[in-house]
């Protein structure tokens, strides 16, 4: 159908061009109008020097002026000539496009058709994507980074893509230079923060047939590594309003609150760089816990 539409446009443009050229030729080569005007001028001159009523002369003058109006000016002819030139350019462009696709369209990469918007016999528009072809062997994921994430995430960092208990290697390939406020319209309308997020692309570095286009997956980005780090479950950390971090440890059956300094962290664990000994027992459930409360240390496996 696309081929037929292109062919139809081609024929229509060619017809319009020919019609314009014919009009110009007819206007330029029409001696009869000029002859009629000259004859009327002779008659008018004769009548003006006779006893013929003046109203007859005026009628003839009006007829002469109407004939003169039918002769196009040089400016009008120039405009028509320009229209022909533009029509020819349009015809050449359409013909070039038609020649490019008349034997079929071949993609420059192998892929899978993931979307089919057109049907045989349907009507398409110039900007309509009839077929979407995607290379499923070259997948990427798009994630959203807030202002805190952007300080740690850099292009080239390794990433893990998790989907249905399977993990694939990935890498940060691109970080948008500007933030998008999409999704924050409710906050803006309510007079709240209008800060947006940066989008970032994660390339999947290995074959991942289980990943599907437009499905969601979990992504972990390795922002740094530390050898022999002392780490604790992140739920054990208590962060107070002033930004200080604490852990509760067990000393002589009592909970003791200790300030600590933290380093790198993941979704589940955080590095302790100062304030905690390697063999100290920490308390995970700190809800309503206060410094000096009695606690019972659980044994391994309990």
From TrEMBL:
Q: Where are the transmembrane segments?
A: none
Signal peptide region: none
Record has Coiled coil as a keyword: yes
Q: Domain named YknX-like C-terminal permuted SH3-like: which ranges? A: 229-296
Give the subcellular location: Cell envelope
Sorted alphabetically, which Gene3D superfamilies does this protein's record hold?
Answer: 2.40.30.170, 6.20.50.140
Q: What keywords are annotated for this sequence in UniProt? A: Coiled coil
GO cellular component terms, A-Z = cell envelope
KW Signal (keyword) present: no
Its main localization is other
A Pfam family that the UniProt record links to this protein: YknX_C
What is the name of the protein in this document? YknX-like C-terminal permuted SH3-like domain-containing protein
Species the sequence originates in: bioreactor metagenome
């Amino acid at each position: 159908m696309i081929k037929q539409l292109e062919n139809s446009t081609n024929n229509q443009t060619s017809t319009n061009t020919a019609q314009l050229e014919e009009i110009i030729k007819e206007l330029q080569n029409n001696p009869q109008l000029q002859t009629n005007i000259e004859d009327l001028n002779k008659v008018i001159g004769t009548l003006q020097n006779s006893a013929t009523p003046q109203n007859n002369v005026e009628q003839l003058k009006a007829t002469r002026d109407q004939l003169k109006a039918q002769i196009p000016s040089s400016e009008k002819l120039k405009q028509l000539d320009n229209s022909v030139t533009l029509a020819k350019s349009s015809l050449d462009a359409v013909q070039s496009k038609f020649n490019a696709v008349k034997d079929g369209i071949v993609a420059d990469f192998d892929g899978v058709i993931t979307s089919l918007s057109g049907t045989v016999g349907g009507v398409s528009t110039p900007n309509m994507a009839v077929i979407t072809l995607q290379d499923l062997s070259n997948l990427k994921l798009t994630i959203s980074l807030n202002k805190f994430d952007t300080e740690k995430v850099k292009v080239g960092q390794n990433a893990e893509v998790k989907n249905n208990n399977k993990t694939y290697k990935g890498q940060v390939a691109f970080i948008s230079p500007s933030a998008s406020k999409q999704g924050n319209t409710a906050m803006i309308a309510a007079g709240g923060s209008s800060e947006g997020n940066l989008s970032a692309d994660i390339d999947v570095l290995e074959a991942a047939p289980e990943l599907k286009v437009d499905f969601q997956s979990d992504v972990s980005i390795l922002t740094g590594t530390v050898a022999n780090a002392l780490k604790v479950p992140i739920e054990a950390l208590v962060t107070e309003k002033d930004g200080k971090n604490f852990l509760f440890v067990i000393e002589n059956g009592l909970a003791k609150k200790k300030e600590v300094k933290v380093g790198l962290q993941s979704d589940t664990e955080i590095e302790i760089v100062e304030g905690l000994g390697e063999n100290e027992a920490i308390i995970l459930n700190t809800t309503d816990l206060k410094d000096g409360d009695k606690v019972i240390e659980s044994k391994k496996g309990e």
